[in-house]
Amino acid sequence: MVQNLNKYTSTSTENIVDKCPAPSPETTESINYHYYIPLRDIVCSYLPFSRIAEIDKAFVLADRAHDGQKRASGEPYIIHPIAVASILAQMKLDTESVVAALLHDVVEDTFLTEDDVKREFGNVVKELVYGVTKLDKLRFHDYREAQAENFRKMILAMIQDIRVILIKLADRTHNMRTIGNLRPDKRKRIARETLEVFAPIANRLGISEIKVELEELGMAALYPMRYRVLKSAVIKARNNRKEIVNNIQESIKARLAEVHIPARILGREKRIYSIYKKMVNKDLQFRDIMDVYAFRVILNDVDTCYRVLGQMHNLFKPRPDGFKDYIAIPKINGYQSLHTSLVGPHGVPIEIQIRTEFMDQMSERGVAAHWSYKEKGSEPTSTTAQKNAQRWIKNLIDLQQSTSSTTDFIEGVKTDLFPDAIYIFTPEGKIYDLPVGATPVDFAYAVHTDIGQHCVGARVNHRMYPLTRPLESGQSVEIITSESAEPNALWLSSAVTSKARSKIRQYLKGLRTQECELVGRRLLQNALKTKKIDQIDPELLNSVLKDFKIQDLSTLFVDIALGNLIPALVAKRLQTDTDVQHLLEEGLPISGTRGLPYTFAQCCLPIPGDRIIAHITPGKGLVIHNANCSNIRDIKRDPSKFTSVEWDLAVASNLDFQTGLRIELENRQGILSEISNAVDVAGSRIEAINSDIKDEHTYVINLTVTVRDRLHLANIIKRIKAVPNVLTIFRRK
Ligand code: MN
After folding, report:
1. Comparison of pLDDT for 225 and 18, the residue scoring more
2. What is the mean pLDDT of the chain?
3. Contacting residues for 24 by C-beta, under 8 A, at least 6 apart
4. How many Å apart are CA 204 and CA 678, to the nearest integer?
5. Which is higher by pLDDT, 396 or 571?
6. Distance from residue 59's CA to the centre of ligand 1 (Å)
7. What is the CA radius of gyration of the chain?
8. To the nearest whole percent, how much of the chain has pLDDT over 70?
9. Which residues pair with 657 in a beta bridge?
C-alpha cells in the first residue's frame, strides 16, 4: 500500500505558545538528559507542544533500555538514537518519525520487544521500528553482489512506509559521522555500501542534504588518501580564487540592486566527491573543474527567476546550449532550478543556478521537505518531489507485481536509482521522462502497456524512426500501433526501462522454447561481440554451464531470453585472455600488438601479405618492419626487442598501405605521364616521387604508391613494366 506522504510531516504550525512544555521529572532525572536537551529544543521549535511528551517518553524508554551499552567511541549508546532523531528533527519530520528514531535500535539490541513498543506508542511507531530493524540485518556489498532478495526486502520496506528509509538514512548518516571508531575492514565495507546503495537512494528521493553528506563521508572513509589530497587542493584553489569570486558576486549583486530585485546570492563550493567523480567519469583535470565559478541566486517567486535569468544573460555572455530549465521540466527526483553557463570577465566560465526559496529547500530536503511553505488555511498539497516519489514507489509496486524474477526487479530498481533522464514529448506535448538510452519501445510502454504490446513503428519529429534506436531528449515521438502486432523478442536487446523489459519478458515466457532459444542465442552473440558462439572452446563452455548449474547450451539460451541470466555476464565468463586482447585490437590491421600503439617502418614499408615483425621501441610503441628488412637484422637476435605480430587480413584488406618502388628507365618524352597512367589504371595512387640520373642514358625514379596487398602490388609492377623504355622495376627494401 502506498500511504499518503503528506501526513508524514507535521501539519501544525499554529497554537505556538511561548514556552515548550516542561519535561516530566522522570525525563530530567535521566542521567543522559543533557544529551537529549538539544533535540528537545529542535522538536519544540516545530512540533505541536501536545506531542512533546511522547518524545520525552521515547527518550526515557530508549535511555533505560540501552543503559550500560556503549558506542565504539566509549560514549553511552543513547547518543546514537538521539543523533538519528535530531537529523530527522532538523528536517522537521513528524512526531512518529522522531519517536521511532529514538527507539530504532531497542528491539534489536535490548530486552524490549515489538509488543512493548506497540503498547507504549501504537502500531505505526512499532511498524517503523520493525522496518528499520529488518533493514539493519541486510548487508550489501554492492548491487552486483547484493543478495537480490535482501535488496528487494529493502525496497519493499520503503514501499510500505517511506519513513522507514528516512530513519535508515539518518541512522547511516550518524554511523558514517562516527565511522572513524571502527576497524578498517568494517569501515571500508560500510563506506562502500553507503556510496553504492544509500547515497543513490537519498538522491532518488531528492534529499541532497543527506546524499551530499553520505558521499563526502563515504569517500573520506573509502579513499582517505585521495580525499585528503583533493581536499587540500580544493582549499588552496579556493584561496587563489577568492578575489575573482568576490568580484563576480559583487557585480551580480549590483545588477540586481539596480533593477530592485531582492535576492540571496551565494558562492557555491564544489564537493570533494563530486569533483572526484567528474575527474574519474568525465576524465577531466582538477583544474578544469575548479576553474568554473559557481553561484546560486535565490529569489522569492518563479517569475522573478526568469527575469533574473534575463539580467544575468545581459550581464555576462551566455554560452550556447548552456541553459537548462529545470523549473518547467523538473528532474526525476523533483529538483527544480534554472541553470545557465556564462562567460565572465577575462573569459572565466561562470555557472549560475537561479531558484526560489521553496525550490532551494526542496533541493535540500526532497521527499522529506516540510509543509511550512503551504499557504495558510489550504489543504496540504504534495510537493513535486513527493509526487514523484509516490509515482516512483507506485511503479516499484507494479514492477514487483509483474515480475516473478528477483533479478528483473533489481535490474529495474537499479536503472531507476541512477537517473540520467531524457525528456520525450507526445504529439500532444505531454512530457515523459525516460532513462538515457531509452528507445521508442520504452516510450511506447511508458505511455501504456497496450501501446507497447502492439507497436509496429515510430515517427520521431514526424519522420519514421527505428523502434530500437535510442531517443534523444526533446524529441517528439508518435507510436504507430496495429491490433494484430505482438512484442518482438529482439527489442530486449535495446529496451532499457524496467517496465518495457519486464513486459517483453512476460510475453516471451508464453513463447515456445525454440523461439526463446533463438532470442537467447542472438542476445548472447551480441554480448560476445566478435567472438562466435560456435567457436567457444567446449571445455570452457562446459565449465561455465556447470558454474551456472545449467545442463546444456539450449537451456542457457532460454534462460538468457527469459532474463534469468544477464547476457553480458555470461559473455564475460566465456571470454578468454586472448579474446580480451582481441577486443583491444578490434578494427586494427595488425594483431598481436596487445593494444600498444604502432607505426610502419619507413625503411621497408611492409604491406599485407609480407611477413612482419614488431620492433619494441621505448616511448614510441611498436614499429612494424618487414621480417627480412636489413635494418632489423641485429634486433632479431634479442628477443626482448621484438614481438611477433600478424596481419588481420579481414581488416587490412579494406585499407590502403604505402610501399616504395625503384624504377630504372631510358628517358624519353612523355614516359613519366605513361607511368603515372599505369599506376592509375592499376587502382593505385602515387604519394611521392623523386628522380635521379644514373648515367648518360638511364634515369632512376623512386615512387611511393598506395597498395592494398602483395597481389595488388604485383599488378601495379606488371602495369609499369609494360610501359616502353622501362628497364627494371623492383620494390625498395
Ligand atoms: Mn542505529
Report:
1. 225
2. 81
3. 53, 56
4. 69
5. 571
6. 15
7. 35
8. 82
9. 707
Sequential DSSP letters for 29-56: TSTTHHHHHHHHHHHHHHS-GGGHHHHH
User: Which of helix, strand or coil describes residue 619?
Assistant: coil
Identify the pLDDT of residue 373: 31
- DSSP state at residue 319: E
CA of 138 to the centre of ligand 1 (A): 13
- Kindly tell me the burial class for residue 269, based on how many C-beta atoms sit within 10 Å of its own C-beta (0-12, 13-18, 19 or more): exposed
The span from the CA of 66 to the CA of 103, in Å, is: 10
276 three-class SS? helix
* Cα separation values, 410 from 400, 500, 712, Å: 10, 14, 56
How far is CA 502 from each of CA 338, 447, 523, 557, 569, rounded to the nearest angstrom?
A: 35, 15, 16, 18, 19
Q: Is 633 exposed, middle or buried (0-12, 13-18, 19+ CB in 10 A)?
A: exposed
Stated length of the chain:
733
Q: Which of 29, 41, 108, 692 is catalytic?
A: 108
SS3 of 343-399: the string is ECHHHCEEEEEEEEHHHHHHHHHHHHCCCCCCCCCCCCCCCHHHHHHHHHHHHHHHH
Are 588 and 651 spatial neighbours (Cβ–Cβ below 8 Å)? yes
Query: Is pLDDT larger for residue 713 or for residue 144?
Result: 713
What separation in Å is there between the alpha carbon of 174 and the centre of ligand 1? 8
* Angle at the Cα of 353 from the Cα atoms of 271 and 319, rounded to 5 degrees: 105
Active-site residue flag, 552? no
Amino acid identity at 486: E
Surrounding residues of ion ligand 1, Cβ less than 5 A: 105, 171
Ligand 1 geometric centre to CA of 199 (Å): 17
Per residue in 297-344, pLDDT tens? 999 999 999 999 999 999 999 988 788 888 887 776 778 899 999 998
Please state, in angstroms and rounded to a whole number, the distance separating the CA atoms of residues 70 and 68: 7
Catalytic (active site) residue 108: yes
Question: Mind listing the pLDDT tens digit for each residue in 694-725?
Answer: 777 788 888 889 898 888 899 999 999 888 88
For the purposes of burial, counting CB atoms within 10 Å of the CB of 350, is it exposed (0-12), middle (13-18) or buried (19 or more)? Answer: buried
- pLDDT of residue 519 exceeding 90, the answer is no
- Judging by beta carbons within 10 Å of its beta carbon (0-12, 13-18, 19+), is residue 549 exposed, middle or buried? exposed
Distances (CA, A) of 571 to 72, 171, 224, 518, 536: 45, 40, 35, 16, 11
